[in-house]
Amino acid sequence: MPQLLPDLSLLIPFILAGIALNLTPGVDMAYVLAKTTHQGKKAGLLAAVGISLGSMVHATASALGISALLATSETAFLTLKIAGAIYLFYIAYKILATPSQSEAQNKEQSVPSKSKNGRIILEGATTNLLNPKIGLFMLAFLPQFIDAAPQDVVWQTLTLGLLFNINGYIVFVVLITLTSLAATKIKASRGIKTLLRWLTATILGGMAFRIAFTNN
Fold first, then answer.
1. Rounded CA gap, 13 and 10, in Å?
2. 100 pLDDT more than 60
3. pTM of the entire structure?
4. Which of 20, 8, 11, 9 is nearest to 159 (CA)?
5. How far apart are CA 90 and CA 65, in angstroms?
6. Termini Cα distance of the chain
7. Closest CA to 2 of 154, 160, 162, 161
8. What is the CA radius of gyration of the chain?
9. Nearest to 32 by CA among 169, 146, 167
10. What is the pLDDT of residues 1-47, one digit of tens each?
11. Helix or strand or coil: residue 201?
12. Among 69, 102, 111, which residue's Cα sits nearest to residue 190?
């Protein structure tokens, strides 16, 4: 039986560090909150599922050593970084170009619900996967809390990656719920709706710019 969890002396600090890190503003949080503000609570929760799935892929890549290859290849890192920035710019454009949830309800009735949900999850996963810094973060963060025998390192890394993502999803649920409640109260007028769309698109565009033009 592989050793899936580290000793409590490492596990508890890992969970606490995970909460702190998941509360730190970043691309994923900006995207999920933008989705919540623009399309409602359900869309935000689905986007968070996509983010978590993408992050789990990064954790798996870290466990298998793939992220280490990314860290040593400047070309691969730059390519993924630029692709991620372009994708965030595209999402920001979509927010400005498409109506908000309340304005789009009639148009969306003809679109199968499962299809819409799947698109939101895929978009969230893509946003996460195209950010190479998350892969490098997993590569640097997870090994600090591993105490398994060499043959169990991969399994323990995967388990810690799963715990980190469960932790992150819980944080997202709380933030999405609070954001949804606030948005419901302030989205009464068309002017406020337009302002929120521009604000969320600007935040995502700023994140895209930061990803594209920062060195680390």
1. 6
2. no
3. 0.76
4. 11
5. 31
6. 39
7. 154
8. 18
9. 169
10. 777 888 888 899 999 988 888 888 788 888 898 888 888 899 999 99
11. helix
12. 102
